[in-house]
Design goal:
Low-confidence stretches: 1-23, 407-417
CATH superfamily: DD-peptidase/beta-lactamase superfamily
Largest sheet: 8 strands, antiparallel
Oligomer: single chain
Shape: globular
CATH architecture: 3-Layer(aba) Sandwich
Mean pLDDT: 90
Helix content: 25-40%
Radius of gyration: 21 Å
Number of strands: 13
Strand content: 15-25%
Distance between the termini: 25 Å
Number of domains: 1
Length: about 425
C-alpha cells in the first residue's frame, strides 16, 4: 500500500566553507536553490512515497568550497513521526562500495602492498583454481569477474541454519568458493560479491577488517566524524525496514542489506553509515585529487584510475550494452532522455536504501541525495527524485540548460546499482 509523506518540519542548514569575513554573502544560487527545492522536493517525495530526504550541493568557487544542505520530510513515520534532521545518519547501502571498499583498495595500492592488476589468487589462495586463477582485482572492481550478482535468501538459509546468525566467516568462505556464472572479462554483471571479495583482500593484505582499516585511513584523517559501520541506534540514525532477525523492530544503525547483515554489518558491499556533511568532505577530497585540508588520502593517480573508464570497449553488459565502469565507481555519460547536468560526464554511485552521490569533475561540482526510501516497508521509488537532484542544482548554480537532451540511444549502459 502506498503511503503519503507525512508532514514534517523542514530543517535547513546553509553550510558555507568560504574562508572569508563573516559578513560575506552567500552566492545568489544558494537562496534560489533553497527556494526552488522548497517547492519541488516535497512534491517529489510525495509522488514517490519517500518519507524524507537530505540534499547537499557543493561547488568550488575560486579557491573555496560553497556547500548548501537542507532536510525535508521525516526521518521516520512508524511507529511515530519524527522530522528529518539535516545531520541524519543514513544506511549508505552500496555507496559503501566506492567510499569505503574501493578507497581502501587504492590506498593499499598507493602503499605498494598490492596492484589492481594483481591476480586475486595472489592475495586469496582460495581463488587459485582453474576457474578463478585469471581474475584480477581490477575485474572485481569493474564487475567483470564472472561472479554472480548476489546470494539470495534461499541460498542464505542453509548457511544460517548450519552456522548461526551472524556468520561472517562462513558466508565469506561460501563466496570465495562460489562458481563463476561467466568467464572473467567476457561481460559485466553488477555484483555485491565483487565488493565483498575486495573487502577480504583488504583484510588479508592489511591485517585489519574493512571497518577498522577504513576508519583509520579514511574517515578519521578526513574528520568524517559520523561515518562508520553499524553505529547502532540513535536519534539521528535513519531507520529502514523490519529486519528478519530484529525481533519485529525496525533496523536502526544495523545494515539493511542481508549479506552485510549476515556478516555482522561489516561488508565490502554495504554496511557503511554516514551523513551528507561527511560525504561532502569525501567528495571534496576526490575532486582535489585525493587531498583535503592538507590531509592526503589517495594519490592523484589513484583518483584518476577510480573515476575514469577502466573496461575495454569489447567488454559489455550481458544485454550487449556499453559498460561504463571505473574502479567500484559507475561512470555516468548520459543516456536517452537525460537532460542538463545528466548529460555531463560524472562518476556516481547509488544505494538500495535510497542514497546517492554524483560528482562532476569538469565542473568541480557534486550533489549528495540521501533518502530513507525503504522505510517503513521498502515500497517507495526514488528515480524521479534523483533526477530532480541532479538537474536542478546544475541549472541554478551553473546555468546548465536543462532543455539539452541526449537523443541518441546508448543501450543499457547506465544500469543503476
Amino acid at each position: 500500500m502506498r503511503r503519503s509523506v507525512l508532514p514534517g518540519t523542514l530543517l535547513s542548514l546553509i553550510l558555507l566553507t568560504l574562508a572569508a569575513p563573516p559578513a560575506q554573502e552567500a552566492p545568489a544560487w544558494v537562496a534560489e536553490l533553497s527556494e526552488r527545492f522548497a517547492t519541488e522536493v516535497p512534491v517529489a517525495l510525495e509522488r514517490e512515497s519517500i518519507p524524507g530526504a537530505v540534499v547537499l550541493v557543493g561547488h568550488l568557487e575560486g579557491d573555496e568550497w560553497v556547500t548548501w544542505c537542507e532536510a525535508y520530510g521525516n526521518i521516520q513515520i512508524e511507529p511515530e513521526v519524527r522530522p528529518m534532521p539535516v545531520d541524519a545518519i543514513f544506511d549508505m547501502a552500496s555507496v559503501t562500495k566506492p567510499v569505503a571498499t574501493g578507497t581502501s583498495i587504492m590506498i593499499l595500492q598507493d602503499r605498494g602492498l598490492l596492484s589492481v592488476d594483481d591476480l586475486v589468487s595472489q592475495h586469496l589462495i582460495e581463488c587459485d583454481t582453474d576457474e578463478k586463477r585469471d581474475i584480477r582485482i581490477r575485474d572485481l572492481m569493474t564487475h567483470s569477474s564472472g561472479l554472480p550478482a548476489y546470494i539470495g535468501a534461499a541460498a542464505q538459509a542453509p548457511i544460517i541454519e548450519e552456522f548461526g546468525y551472524p556468520c561472517p566467516d562462513a558466508l565469506q568462505d561460501v563466496i570465495l568458493n562460489i562458481p563463476l556464472q561467466y568467464s572473467p572479462n567476457s561481460a559485466t554483471v553488477y555484483s555485491c560479491l565483487n565488493a565483498i571479495t575486495c573487502a577480504q583482500i583488504v583484510e588479508r593484505v592489511s591485517g585489519q577488517p574493512l571497518d577498522e582499516f577504513a576508519a583509520e585511513n579514511i574517515f578519521e584523517p578526513l574528520g568524517m566524524i559520523d561515518t562508520s559501520f553499524s553505529p547502532g541506534p540513535g536519534p539521528r540514525v535513519v531507520p529502514t525496514t523490519v529486519g528478519s532477525h530484529s525481533s519485529g523492530e525496525f533496523l536502526c544503525g544495523m545494515v539493511h542489506d542481508p549479506l552485510a547483515n549476515i556478516q555482522a554489518g561489516v561488508s565490502g558491499n554495504a554496511g557503511l553509515f554516514s551523513t551528507a556533511q561527511d560525504l561532502s568532505i569525501f567528495a571534496q577530497m576526490m575532486l582535489q585529487g585525493g587531498e583535503r585540508d592538507g590531509v592526503r588520502i589517495l594519490s592523484e593517480e589513484a583518483v584518476g584510475q577510480m573515476t575514469s573508464e577502466q573496461l575495454p570497449s569489447d567488454v559489455r553488459t550481458t544485454r550487449g550494452g556499453v559498460a561504463h565502469r571505473g574502479l567500484l565507481w559507475q561512470i555516468a555519460v548520459g543516456g536517452p532522455g537525460d537532460r542538463g547536468m545528466e548529460t555531463i560526464p560524472a562518476y556516481t554511485h547509488t544505494g538500495y536504501t535510497g542514497t546517492a552521490i554524483r560528482i562532476w569533475p569538469s565542473e568541480n561540482f557534486y550533489v549528495i541525495a540521501l533518502t530513507n526510501r525503504v522505510h517503513p516497508d521498502d515500497t517507495s521509488e526514488v528515480a524521479a527524485f534523483r533526477q530532480l537532484c541532479w538537474r536542478v542544482p546544475g541549472e541554478i548554480a551553473l546555468g546548465i540548460d536543462t532543455s539539452t537532451q541526449v537523443l541518441k540511444p546508448l543501450g543499457d549502459a547506465l544500469a543503476t546499482p
